[in-house]
Amino acid sequence: MTDPLLRQELLDPDVLSGLLETDWVGRTLHTYRTLPSTNAHLLSMAEEAPPGAVIVAEEQTGGRGRLGRRWEAPPFRALLFSVLFRPAGGVGDAALATLTAGIAVAEAIARQGGPPARIRWPNDLVVGDRKVCGILSEYSSRGPSLVVGIGLNVNQTDQELPPGAASLRSCAGRPLSRAPLLAAILSGLEVWWNRMVREGFGPIRERAEDLSSLIGRSVTLDLGEKKVEGIATGIGAGGGLLIGVGRERKEYFTGEVVRVRPLATE
Question: Is the peptide bond before 162 cis (omega within 30 degrees of 0)?
């Protein structure tokens, strides 16, 4: 049975619009009870939609994560939404947009009194070592369009979460109101996207490093055909993960971090 406290807090577009402190992100906003995928829906209308358009769903039946994984959450518990951007740098901006979104989500959680969330490259946020958020950025040459999809576990109980995952509620010990949190994320997205347009990737790179859960730790990066083990030393100029092996340091743009360990000196 759905928790009545959470069931009554539907994401109403009029309420969300009243909470927004943005000029363009979220000023076109549509909410749905159920969608197969907010990313797919927004991509289908991306040529006609204005920059900053947002699609929100209470439930996704075909939500997708990175590497084709499914993203599932019970209705009325999570934030499931996608935002449209018009990138100047083409498909290369997808990785940068993912990190920009990670910053916006982490900072919004902190502003709303949630637990400290950190960015786990390339597209997750974690509290401790448990995943609370996934980000999927998809580029289309039509427009051109860059759709950034965000799935954030907000009010799920431990019983509603898959192994290795957490929600803000399970970490904080109390429910969080989703509408102010979503408005704060959209405001942060606009601030950081505008800053990237004005100043380039440098400020985003620095802030992503500040919020990283990996930098300074020993990691194993699975590239499919091989694994790389070394020290995560930073975020590269292209948004990749910098890993030091011996005296060499290399930026990796693909792969999945499958193991994270503290340094022996910690």
Answer: no
173 and 97 in a single domain? The answer is yes
> Residue length, the chain?
266
Whether this prediction's pTM lies above 0.85 is answered by yes
Is 191 a domain residue? yes
Instruction: List C-alpha distances in Å: 100 to 6, 35, 110, 207.
Output: 29, 25, 16, 9
**How does pLDDT run across 170-217, given as a tens digit for each residue?**
999 999 999 999 999 999 999 999 999 999 999 999 999 999 999 999
The CATH number given to whatever domain includes residue 156 is: 3.30.930.10
- CA atoms of 213 and 31, how far apart (whole Å): 32
Task: Check which CATH number belongs to the domain holding 233 and give it.
Answer: 2.30.30
Q: Cβ distance 180 to 17 under 8 Å? A: no
Q: Is 59 exposed, middle or buried (0-12, 13-18, 19+ CB in 10 A)?
A: middle
Beta strands in 1-76 (DSSP E): 29-32, 54-57
Domains contained in the chain, number? 2
Query: Is residue 51 in a domain?
Result: yes
* Residues spanned by the domain of 147: 4-210
